[in-house]
Amino acid sequence: MTADEIDAPAKMVEPPTVLQRYYEVHPTYRLILRWALMVTLTAVAFHRSIASLVEVTRNDSIGGYVWTVPTAAVLVASAIARRNRTELPIHDRQTDIIVGIIGLGLALLIQGVLLPRYALYFYLLRLDLVAMWLFVVASAVVLFGLRPVIRFSWVWAMLLLVFSLPYYLAVISLGGGKVAAGAATLLIAGLGAGIAGGPSYRRGALASAAAWAVGFAILAVVAIFLPTVPMRVYQQIPALSAICVVGLAMFFLSRRGKPKRVLERKVEPLAAKQVWAGVPLVTAAALVLATFPLPISPNAAIFERPSGYPLVSGTPPVAPPGWMTSAAITRTPVNRLYGPDAVLVRQRMTADVGNPRWDKMGSPRTVVVDSTVSQRPFSLGTYPSRVLYGLTSARISEIREVDLGMGVIGSLISVVDDQLLVTWNSMQFNWGDEDLAQRVTIFAVDNHDPDAPFPQPTQNLFPTLRTLITLLFRGNEVLDQRTPSFKDADMLSQFGRALVAAQSGPAP
């Protein structure tokens, strides 16, 4: 060894950086880390939506079906993950970032623009969950790459079932109730089993048919032997059991005579390696989304004001002093919307004497009182009055709150109905608790004739689609009344206070 070699300083070996250590980790653990990051950011961005879903489920609303969708999607995704990866090992981070930015931008627009626009229909549409779906898909594109996301495209499409309106339409079309809710949820099971049973169309169709058969069998058992269980049992147990049973059957049939391994192929290296540049993008979007509040629906879904009398479905309120029931009481079933035995009771009440302030000729005025008692109080907020009366061509004013006494706050609105060709005022109030509640709506039209038309209730949700499409493309202004006329505000306020006071004793 020469003197120069002895005097040369020893070369220092630099320790590996954090990124180098990360890329040396097994692909399985890196996959788990990325999913953990995405789930955490989703929980932060949509913590209000998750809390709202918990409240919906706790109140036994049909909106609790949403939990079935991601659970079924995980089961279906596990079946697709067993298949050999077929996408080409081509990767373009610029495309991933561009697509991710578009998806995150759409999520921000839905949460910040569309959600307030559809505040009245918040529980009916759950657009916040559509924004959550867009956020998760866009985050997956940024963190995993576009090609792996496309590989699970059917699973992502299945997750879009969190958009509630088609599910509600299916439940109402099937008759409403727990059995109808469970049967509608089997649509998720049939679709999921068909996706998992692929890749051939024949295998998918057989798996889907088998899931329907198993699901309906379990649903029948639940309906016959456990009729009083909560709604979520009807929605989740048959659907998820059908996917699990059919999935296991397909697994064992396809592995006859072969080793029964959960994952047959090796875990391939992650396509998207350089993901750290996208983490700040996803994190920033999550933090911005976390600042958007959920809209407060004017129709409160939880009732804390006890009623003035025992609530019994089909029992009309007591007429207040100075008013009498002037026509036969009618009862219209609304069980498809508001739960079992729910009926809308319609009363025509006419004043004993006329009042010149309410009619220039001094004739006695007539109002219509609609009342509905629901065993599912949350449904009164899910289907507001605008849905119940099919007011697709009506222009409605902003709500005015009126104190009706005894702790009851009424909501007064003015409506121009281009279909009935009348202008009318309405007073509405709710009372009850989380188990049993009543909604009372009082109508007074500007046509004072005895045969004046009043809004008619309907259980058909399809006319509401026209209103929703109009709101989407033209905004709230076309359905809002900018110069409301509250001609009957004084009469409705006095009548409402008298009606609330008259219910202080037991109903006859």
UniProtKB/TrEMBL annotation:
Keyword Membrane: yes
Protein name: Transmembrane protein
Transmembrane region(s): 31-50, 62-81, 97-114, 120-146, 153-173, 179-198, 205-227, 233-254, 275-296
Keyword tags: Membrane, Transmembrane, Transmembrane helix
Natural source organism: Mycolicibacterium vanbaalenii
